[in-house]
HTH-type transcriptional regulator CysL (Cupriavidus numazuensis), 304 residues
Amino acid sequence: MPVPFDITDFRLFVNVAETRSLTRGAERSFLSVPAVSNRIKNLEDTLGLRLLERSPQGVTLTAAGEVYLQHARVVLAELERLTGNLQPFTTGLSGQLKLVANTTAITEYLPPVIGDYLATHPDVRIEVRERLSDDIVRLVREGGTDLGIISGNIPTSGLQSVPFVNSSLIVVAPLGHPLLAEQDVWFGQVLDHAFVALLEGSAFQMFMTRAAGALHKPMTIRVHVASYDAICRMVAAGAGVAIMPKAAFVRLKGQQQIGACNLRDDWAVRTFQVCARDLDGLSSFAREFANLLIGHYAPDAERR
């Protein structure tokens, strides 16, 4: 007897699996926790399989749950693609575009493109999530997002990716700071000083913590803040030095008493890429966003 699969079950299960929590999955699905728990139990009873292991710490996927999640994502992605491809023929359809990007892409490169895109696509909703680049590649491969925006030397085998802009990380310090006496410094030198940094959960700060760990040196953080703007203000006030994208520094430095120097480390110069499992196979509205992003920055890629 065929199993009656349900689109609502697919969406609900993906939300629970991605958050690893019935409570957060329920919030994302706009349902109560008991309703979510009952729905998943009914799904498991119908399939005759256990999909989730429940514990006080949250939920984990069983092997069967991993398979169900993979196929649920594929089905939902195909539905979004169908919706997008039907849009030219009707005014009543709306779509959702899922993007996953790292911190710098979200703060520096996506805002103007998203603004232009939504002006011409008012019926499309955009969901943007922040992750590290290697996590983004994994989500794209698994069908957890339509497009990923990554940077650095991250393997993307099996995916299609197009570079659209180059970016560099720089050291920011108060005017007169010893680090600014040199035009280029190594990250290891900077680690001898106290830092102003983004919040611990941000993808950018996780990247920097990994870089410090690779040198087996601690990153002494005096202040955690929520934005690059706050970083500049704290650095100007003498709270510490910082690492940030050059694009953000140029945008925010204004009249503040701060300066910058370059990092010598290879990872400090990064190429940003947009990637997907199949760019040509995306829904029309996702493909149009990718083309808009590439076209917006590609002519100036060497100057950023």
The chain is about 45% helix and 25% strand. The two ends are 59 Å apart (CA to CA).
